[in-house]
Structures are given as structure tokens and as C-alpha cells.
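The material for today's practical consists of a large collection of protein records. Read left to right, the C-alpha cells trace the chain's path through space. An example says more than a description, so a record of this kind follows:
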Amino acid sequence: MIVSAHVAGDGSPWDTWGADPLVLFGVAGVALLYAMGWSRLRGRGRPDLASLARTACFAGGLVVVGLALLSPLDHIGEEYLLSAHMTQHVLIGDVAPLLLALGVAGPLALFVVPRPVLRALARRRPRAVLRILGRPWVAFAAWAAVMWGWHVPVAYQYALEHPWAHNVEHVSMITIGLMVWMHILGLVPRRRMSHARRAGYALGLLAVGMALSEVLFLRGPLYSVYIDQPERLLGLSPTADQTRAALLMAAEQMITLVTAAALLMWSHVDQAVAERNAVAAPPALRRPRAS
């Protein structure tokens, strides 16, 4: 990660804050675009589509991204603890994308994206690419590739040694996390799956993540940057640190993805019961069709 400045107290890694201009300007730019789109939509008399609750979710997502990439967590994760780096990854790859997706749900997303970008995306070739990228299985495969790929020791070490690759890693995690959560939440209109399929989709992602956690849990220390670090923060050995990283990843994904799957299955059952009751109801009690 490129860090142009640090604000440190006594030189402890726990007091090291980053000032990466890419993160600062990126978060500020996205916040400005969101504010402009939010204002335009409310100006058209649709405050229901640009509610304060959605704004709070989106702001929360940006705060999570900022804290994950600028707080001492970034410095500690790069040099001292895999568990700290894993915390950063689950924040920018899962928690923040979920909040951002909730924040742009509905037509608001079209108002947040600048009009020149929308016009460019509406052209034939970009539209065809978007159709492919918008397929659930493509997002699923990309999510698996990003999560597994960046945790391969060679790729992991390369990202730490090359700031541009580390930035690509973070952007890819945020982007692909946003893609899969949009499918789980049913925010891709033409590709919207049923509640049951979306629940299965979330559980499939969980299975992929749990497999990665299992590898980290069962294998010995994989990353030389933490093995060779003489200063052991929190007194954690490389093995204990990697074990905690694996458990943290598994726990976070179980909380978010299992909760999402459970809520979707609940909605699926409610919908099925309502449809069955509607069919079984006497003709006089059925709601007349709109003419």
C-alpha cells in the first residue's frame, strides 16, 4: 500500500495511521458522487428512493473502507500479523460491499453514476460486457478467484512488495464483493434470482470461503513476511496468528452469509405459504384481478 504520511504517537505500530492519497481522494470522490445523485433523486420528489437509511448504509460502507485502509490495521497487517490483514480483507471484501450495496439499492445507483459514464456504458460493446459480468455465476467465479488468488503465498507476497498490486488487490476485493452482494440482495433486475436461489448462492459463497479458511487453519505458516518478523505482536507465533486469521474469516462469513441465507429462506417460505393460501382460498375471498 502506498502511504505518503503517518501519524504516530510513540512509534508503536498500534499508533500508525496512513494517509494514502488514493484512499483519501477515492473515498471523498465516491462520497461526492453519491451526495450529488442522492440530491438529484430527492429533488425529483422521490425521497423514498433516496432515504436517510440508505445514506447511513452507504456512509457506513465508506467509513469501513477508510478505517480498514488507513487505520493502524493496515500497517500491522502488512508487517506483523496475518490476522490483522485478514480483518482488513473481510472488512473491504464483505462488510463494506454489503453496506455500499444497501446504500445504492434501486434507481439511486443510476443517479450516483455520472451521466457520461452511463452513456458510455449504454453503447453496444460495453453493454454486452456488462450483461456477461452481471450473470450470477460470473460474479461467483470471480469472487472465488479473487479470494483464493490473493491468498496464494506468491501472490500475497508480491502484493505486499509492490504497492500497485496491493492497490489492485484492495480494489478487486471491494468490486467483487459489491457484485456478489448485489446478487444476494436481488439488486440486479434482469438477473434477479428467486429467494431460494439467492440463499443457495450465499451458501455457495460460504462454502468457497470456508474451504480457504480450512486450508489456512490446517496448514503451517504460509507467509514469510510474518514468519520472519522478529517482533511478535500480542505474543502470537506465526502458527497461532494464521489460525486466528482462518477462524476470523470463517466467523465473519458465517455471520454475514448465513444470516443472509436464513432471511432469504424465511422470505421464500413466507411467499410459498402466501401463494398456497391464495390458491386454497374460496373464490369469494380471493382478491379480484386488476382490470
